[in-house]
Structures are given as structure tokens and as C-alpha cells.
Write a structure and sequence with these properties.
Layout (H helix, E strand, L loop, with lengths): L1 H4 L4 H7 L4 E2 L8 E12 L11 H7 L6 E2 L12 E11 L6 E8 L4 E7 L4 E5 L4 H5 L10 H4 L4 E5 L9 E3 L5 E3 L11 E3 L11 H21 L14 E4 L9 E5 L5 E6 L17 H18 L11 H10 L9 E3 L3 E5 L19 H20 L4 H20 L12 H17 L13 H10 L23 E2 L20 E4 L17 E9 L9 E7 L2 E2 L2 E2 L4 E9 L10 E9 L8 E7 L16 E2 H4 L6 E4 L1 E5 L3 H9 L3 E5 L6 E8 L2 H4 L3 E4 L8 E3 L4 E5 L1 E4 L7 H6 L2 E8 L2 E11 L21 H12 L24
Parallel strand pairs: 10-12, 12-14, 21-29, 28-36
Antiparallel strand pairs: 1-3, 2-4, 4-5, 5-6, 7-8, 9-11, 13-14, 15-16, 17-19, 18-19, 19-24, 20-23, 20-25, 22-26, 25-27, 29-33, 30-32, 30-35, 31-34, 35-36
């Protein structure tokens, strides 16, 4: 270990820092190692990424650097001592190099401590607008300092250049706050070493916000993997005027005339009290509208506007701020300043592409933000898990920036009707999706169908010959074959993507329509139902069948094996959902006791599955693949006894095994979100994964672990059939780093009175009375082991040697 980490190159250090972020930097640029020294270090989680100054906390509240690191492995324990290499290095990611120190534990290569070595000052700002922060509508821009001051946050002002003449100005490597347009109000300067702390209703407070939020945007884009070349001919630091344009509610971003941003100016957020001004630069959403909306367009089309809408600034304001917002109205794009701007506009009210409100300006911008917010919601923005929402926010932002980055100045002057330009931009989004997000390690191609659907729902893709204004959604693709997971082939967010019951198994080739639990080691027969929501008949329809061990966090294609009947050609399938056909039987031989997962992938001429987008050697986790391609259906659903009372149900679930895998390229903390039907949870039934201790299990990248289920009931309860039929599923979700990566579901079958003979379990010494378990107990006793001491048994193979008399 010492040989590996005694000397670390910049290239090797970048691998160690994968997944680390500090004040928005993701260390994607070159790293220059300046020194390295071995130490013995006492690890404390509290000190890993945070430093608290007691005096500062007393005066201004808790302050901490914005540092994110992957979790430490299980071998790293609190207050233990470890040999570390203290590496000081220079990151050349920003325009100005910046020094850091990292303590790297030599046996695992884990960062136990990370800090910037520059002495950034702090300032008070509105991290988000007061209504999004508190949910209190009374916190308006007309509020006094008594109301607004407690809502300020103390933050690091990253990237500031050194003081000149003992005076620190708001000038950094990305942004410089300076006088540009009238009125003439200079940027504040502080004596070196003092922090920028002002009352909310002051020009100085607006200046600190102007620096922080504009700098914040460039760092956000950098964290998504974009480099300085994305900004065209923009010169940095970008001039920003915190108090311009007079006493009005306004802001603007101006180009430099040659494919870059010239400057940005901000006026007021409130005109009722100009003696104590409140600047509009205090609203992070407004800054996003200016820089993410107009700024990026200047750099690629040399214009502040699309040819079909004002900009995508409202889209960024909505998507980036959804996570953590307490605003009562989720769909008010600017809840503090402009509650009339929204991102939930309906086509029936004229907000379709080609509708009566599609006027190419601010109204069309709301049509665009509604469309793009739908994409964000579909791929995880509607999740209750913050990690999932953050992924959706970052991916949608990345995709939008990449699509705009592919535009050229010809786009702004493109001839043709507005709908042609909208269609062209939708195609740019779909094309951008096909490219790999290399800085995040994600292969492209998973979300093209979601993007197309989002524009369709907002009125694009009308039938040939249709004339505006439109008040209905557009038409599906000509061919759109799907396996119905409850969404009828569409793409609203699916929190449980693995419970598609239009895939089922039979233990004999009898064509039955209900699922039977697979029998291990013999031929079984799988079936699937498919439909076509497209406008035309699907031809060349083919369905492929796959299976794998019961698990969550599965990855395509490495975890899936073709069935014995690898594929079946299906008849032509009528469009417009006019028909539903059954394809099968797929012969297959399960190898796992109790349950095995099945996947079906349908395709047709003109409608390939997204699996075709991934090159040889590329992999994609199920949570990104399955819910975003209606050609794919996955069934991790096992029936359990619901017709024999609570005892039979408990026996069906007790000791069930499945494998959970970490699909990420970094260490993951995995927990389980278990949902029981109300008639069980309200009567004292509890289901847990006993392998979880201290809230989660920690898995290295790609690591898999077999876990079990433990179920208990406080009392003997009845299982009314009508209650079961209303809510028949038990869901076990695997949540890795706060992203739902898969799971298992158990269908409570009122027609099944006894546990399946194939689902016997022997777990935690509390075994059920089945022939299989009695055999296990007898075998364990013959080995001289007390069965009550056995924590778990997994039956993988049974061998019989038969000897005959002759």
C-alpha cells in the first residue's frame, strides 16, 4: 500500500478524487501535485469535510465549505488511526489555479480529509429566495430588514483575487462586480480579512449576491463537465453590475457581439422602498434566467433568444430550484417576484406548441419550461428521494446545456415557421442524449423517448394537415410498441419500475394467464403482453426474453441471461392501442430457488429499444434503462400466500433472499425502503432486512451482497380478501446513495393458501415448517451443528447418488 500511495501523480490523484466536489468544483481539469508527506491520522467523520469556527458561528450562524465526498468504506472507523499521504495540489479547473490538501488513506485510497488552501472570505446572501426558503408567502420583496435579515445565509465567496492596497473587492476568476450602467453605485470593498456582511435592504447586500450567484452559475456548469471553451468569446472575469437600469424591476444580460457574454446587470426586486433598496440579484432564479437563458445563447447562436421562444432561462430556474424548495406552489417559476410565470401550462388552455399562447416570446418560454420540467419530473424529479431529484436536475441541466451548445448562429436566423424550429430543437435534445456524459461516467442513449414524449404532450407532433391553434397533445410516433407497466406506454415518473405484471410464468406449456412461481432446474414457460400506441401498424415485431437471479441494482447487459427461447417473432400489431397480443411461450430454466427476475424487450421496424444505443462493453443500470423505455418490461414480482391467514403469509416471506448490487462507480450506502399495505402495517406487521445495521449497508463499486427478509407480526390478524385486492403489493426498494436502484415486489395472492414448496427458507434460526426446511435442519444436525445457531442457509444445488443392486 505504501508503494502505491507514497508518491501520487496528478493523473492518479484525479482517480482518487473521482466523485469529490468542493464549492462546485469537480476536479475535472489538470491537477499538479506540489508535495506529499506520510502521517498517522486519527479519523473523525465530523472533520472530514467541515470546519467550524466557533467565533464565526456565534456571530453569523453555522458556516461550512460546500464539500461532497463519496462515503468511506466499512474498514474506516471513527477515531481509529490510519496511515495517510497528505497531498497538496493545484487544481487548474478554474481560470485561476487553486490549491488544496487531501489526506489519502493508503490501504483503500479513500480521502479522509479535503480542504481548499485558499483563504476565501464569507458573505451573507439569500441562498434561495425567501419564499422558496421558508414557504411563507408573507416574506415578500417589500418586507423589512427585520423580516429578511434572519433569512440570510453565511457562505464562502469562492475564487476572490487577493486584496489590492489592503482593500478586498468582489472580483474573482469568474465574476467581477463593477459599475457598468447607471445609476452609478460602486461595488463595495472591505478592509482585507473582513467578511461581506450587510443588511438585506442595501445595495451592498445586492452586490454580494450578484457576485455569489453569478459565480455560482459558472461553477455549476463546470461541475457538469463543461470547460471554458463552452463560453465562446466571453472574457473573464465577467463584468456584473449589481445596481443598474434605474429604480425598476428588471435585469438583463448583454452579448459582446462576437459569440460571447458581454456583461450582466441587475436592478431592483422591490420598487416600494427605493431609499432602502432590495436588489433583484438576490434572487438566484433571476440570475439563472439571465445567464442560463440569454448568456448561453449569446455564446452559441450570438443572440439572446431562440427563434421560437424567449430563452430557456425559466426552465433552468424551475428545474434547478425544485429540489428543497418550500414554495407552496411548486409550479410558480419565480414565486418571490413573478408568480404569474409558470411551468405547468396546459395545452387545453392554449399553451400548446402551436397554441394560441405560442407567440415566440415570454409565453413560449413558459411552454418550453413546462415541456422541459416534464422531462425532469419523469426521470426522477417527481421522486421522494432527494438523491434521485438531484440526479434528474443535474442530468436535465446537462442535457439542455449540451443541446444549446450544439446550436450555431444559423439557428437564430433559421427560416421556417416556429413549429419547425421547435421540432429542430427537440431533435437537438434527443441527439444530445445520445452522447456520453463522460465527466459523470454515464453512457448516452437512455432518455430519447422521454424527451420526444414530453414535447408530444405539450402539443408538438400534430397529425399531418392539422392547423393551429392547437388545444390537444400531439400524436405518438408512427410505431410505438410497449409492454404496459401501468402508464399505457407513456413516461410519467415510475417509482417502482420492476413490477410489470404483463410478464408472467407458467410451469407447464398450458397457455395460462396467471403467474406461477418458477420451478428451479426444469423448463418453465414465460409470456408477455404487448401493445402499440403508435399511429400505424407495427411490422417486424420481435420480443426477446431474459432472466437473472432475484436482485436489485441490476445492470444491463451483464446481469441478464437470454432465455432458452431467446426471441420470438410476433404478428403485426395494430396501432392506436387497438389490439393487445400475447407473445410466448419463452422456454427457460430457472436456477434460483424461490424466485427469478424476468425481462422482456420488444421492438419493431421503426421502433428499436434503447438497448441499441449502447455500444459493446457499455453498461447501464436498470433504474436508468427500464422506466425510460416502454419497449422494456421487468418483473421482479413473486407471489406469496394471502389466502391462508397471517401465518401462511409470514411463512411465505420469512427468509426470502435476494441480491443487492451497487451499480455505481463509487462506494454506495444502501438502505431499503419497505412499503407494506395499510392493512398489514396498521396491525403491527413489520418487515425488515436484518443485514442492515446502522441504517444502511456499505458496498464497494460493483459489489453485490445477498440479503434476506425478516417479518414479524404482533398479533394474529385476519387478511380480508377485499383489503388485499385493493392493495396487494409489498414493495422492497433498494436505495443506494438516495437513488432507487431497483427492488423486489411480493404479490399477496388470495388464491394461494400455503407457502410455495419452492420458497422454503431457513433464516436466523426461525425456520418455517416445510419439507425443504426439515431436510435442511436434519442435514445441519448431522454435521453436529445446532440449527438455532445457523443465521442463514441458501440452497443452491442438490446432488443425488443412486446405487443399484445389480
Amino acid at each position: 500500500a505504501l508503494k502505491k500511495y507514497r508518491r501520487v501523480s496528478g493523473k492518479e490523484l484525479k482517480k482518487v478524487l473521482a466523485g469529490a466536489e468542493i464549492t462546485g468544483s469537480s476536479f475535472s481539469g489538470d491537477l499538479e501535485v506540489k508535495s506529499s508527506t506520510l502521517y498517522v491520522y486519527e479519523y473523525q467523520q465530523e472533520n472530514r469535510v467541515q470546519y467550524h469556527d466557533p467565533l464565526e458561528e456565534e456571530s453569523f450562524g453555522k458556516h461550512e465549505e460546500e464539500i461532497k465526498l463519496p462515503p468511506v468504506p466499512d474498514t474506516i472507523n471513527e477515531n481509529n488511526f490510519y496511515v495517510v499521504n497528505a497531498v497538496t495540489f493545484i487544481s487548474k479547473e478554474d481560470l485561476l489555479p487553486k490549491p488544496y490538501i487531501a489526506l489519502i488513506e493508503v490501504e483503500t485510497g479513500t480521502i479522509l480529509y479535503l480542504r481548499s488552501l485558499s483563504s476565501d472570505l464569507t458573505g451573507l446572501i439569500f441562498r434561495t429566495d425567501p419564499i422558496s426558503l421558508t414557504g411563507v408567502l408573507a416574506n415578500t420583496p417589500a418586507s423589512t430588514n427585520a423580516t429578511l435579515n434572519p433569512l440570510r445565509s453565511n457562505v464562502t465567496l469562492p475564487g476572490l483575487v487577493a486584496p489590492v492596497g489592503g482593500i478586498q473587492k468582489l472580483k474573482g476568476n469568474w465574476v467581477e462586480v463593477k459599475e457598468i450602467e447607471s445609476p452609478v453605485i460602486a461595488s463595495p470593498g472591505m478592509p482585507a480579512g473582513l467578511n461581506f456582511n450587510y443588511n438585506a435592504r442595501t445595495d451592498e447586500f445586492a452586490a454580494v449576491n450578484a457576485y455569489y450567484h453569478n459565480d455560482r452559475f459558472f461553477r455549476f456548469v463546470t461541475s457538469l463537465g463543461f470547460t471554458a471553451s463552452y463560453w465562446g468569446s466571453t472574457s473573464f472575469p465577467l463584468p456584473v453590475d449589481h445596481r443598474a437600469l434605474g429604480n425598476i424591476l428588471n435585469a438583463h444580460c448583454v452579448g459582446n457581439g462576437s459569440g460571447g457574454i458581454g456583461h450582466a446587470c441587475y436592478a431592483l426586486a422591490d420598487t416600494t422602498n427605493t431609499a432602502n433598496p432590495l436588489g433583484i440579484a438576490t434572487d438566484w432564479r433571476v440570475v439563472l434566467h439571465e445567464l442560463a437563458g440569454h448568456g448561453v445563447l449569446y455564446c452559441h447562436v450570438n443572440s439572446p433568444n431562440f427563434g421560437f421562444a424567449h430563452s430557456a432561462g425559466d426552465s433552468f430556474a424551475a428545474i434547478v430550484n425544485d429540489l428543497g424548495s418550500l414554495a407552496p406552489d411548486r409550479f410558480a417559476t419565480f414565486p418571490w417576484l413573478l408568480p404569474g410565470r409558470r411551468h405547468d401550462r396546459t395545452v387545453a388552455a392554449g399553451w400548446a406548441w402551436g397554441g394560441s399562447n405560442d407567440t415566440n416570446g415570454y409565453n413560449s418560454e413558459q411552454i418550453l419550461s413546462t415541456t422541459l420540467f416534464r422531462i425532469y419530473r419523469s426521470i426522477g424529479g417527481d421522486s421522494t428521494n432527494a438523491g434521485m431529484k438531484e440526479f434528474a436536475m443535474r442530468f436535465t441541466s446537462y442535457l439542455l446545456l449540451r443541446a444549446i451548445g450544439n446550436l450555431t448562429p444559423a439557428h437564430a436566423t433559421q427560416t421556417g415557421v416556429g413549429l419547425a424550429k421547435v421540432t429542430a430543437f427537440a431533435n437537438e435534445m434527443i441527439s444530445a442524449n445520445l452522447g456520453d456524459w463522460t465527466s459523470a461516467g454515464l453512457p448516452g442513449g437512455a432518455y430519447g423517448k422521454v424527451i420526444r414524449w414530453a414535447f408530444e404532450k405539450q402539443g408538438l407532433y400534430q397529425a399531418a394537415g392539422a392547423t393551429p391553434p392547437f388545444t390537444t397533445a400531439g400524436k405518438p410516433p408512427a410505431v410505438d410498441v410497449y409492454i404496459n407497466d401501468g402508464r399505457n406506454g407513456e413516461y410519467t415518473y415510475q417509482p417502482v419500475h420492476w413490477a410489470n405484471t404483463n410478464i408472467w410464468n407458467r410451469t407447464s406449456n398450458d397457455g395460462g394467464l396467471t403467474h406461477q412461481e418458477p420451478i428451479v432446474g426444469v423448463t418453465n414457460y414465460a409470456y408477455v403482453k404487448i401493445k402499440n400506441r403508435g399511429t400505424s401498424t407495427a411490422t417486424g415485431v420481435v420480443v426477446k426474453g431474459f432472466h437473472c437471479k432475484p436482485g436489485a441494482g441490476l445492470t444491463w447487459p451483464i446481469d441478464w441471461k437470454p432465455m432458452v427461447t431467446a426471441q420470438i417473432a410476433a404478428p403485426n400489431l395494430a396501432g392506436n392501442n387497438a389490439a393487445e397480443i400475447i407473445v410466448g411461450p419463452f422456454q427457460w430454466v430457472p436456477s434460483q430457488v424461490g424466485h427469478e427476475c424476468m425481462m422482456m424487450i420488444a421492438s419493431a421496424v421503426g421502433d428499436p429499444s434503447n438497448i441499441n444505443n449502447f455500444a459493446a462493453g457499455e453498461t447501464v443500470p436498470e433504474w436508468r434503462l427500464v422506466p425510460n423505455d416502454n419497449n422494456i418490461g421487468q418483473r421482479n414480482v413473486a407471489p406469496v400466500a394471502g389466502g391462508g391467514g397471517i401465518k401462511a403469509l409470514l411463512e411465505s416471506l420469512q427468509g426470502r433472499l435476494f441480491t443487492v448490487t451497487n451499480p455505481f462507480t463509487e462506494i454506495a450506502n444502501v438502505s431499503f425502503d419497505i412499503t407494506l399495505p395499510k392493512f398489514l402495517s396498521s396491525n403491527g406487521v413489520k418487515l425488515e432486512v436484518p443485514e442492515v445495521r446502522n441504517r444502511y449497508i456499505r458496498l464497494q463499486k460493483g459489489e453485490a451482497k445477498v440479503v434476506s427478509l425478516k417479518i414479524t407480526s404482533e398479533k394474529d390478524i385476519a387478511l380480508p380478501a377485499e383489503e388485499i385486492l385493493r392493495d396487494p403489493f409489498i414493495h422492497v426498494k433498494a436505495v443506494a446513495n438516495d437513488i432507487v436502484v431497483g427492488g423486489m415486489s411480493y404479490f399477496i395472492d388470495t388464491k394461494q393458501e400455503k407457502p410455495s414448496k419452492h420458497s422454503g427458507s431457513f433464516s436466523n434460526g426461525k425456520h418455517t415448517e416445510t419439507p425443504l426446511n426439515r431436510s435442511i435442519e436434519k442435514a445441519v444436525q448431522q454435521l453436529g451443528i445446532d440449527p438455532e445457531k445457523v443465521a442463514n442457509v441458501r440452497v443452491k444445488k442438490i446432488k443425488l447418488d443412486l446405487e443399484f443392486d445389480d
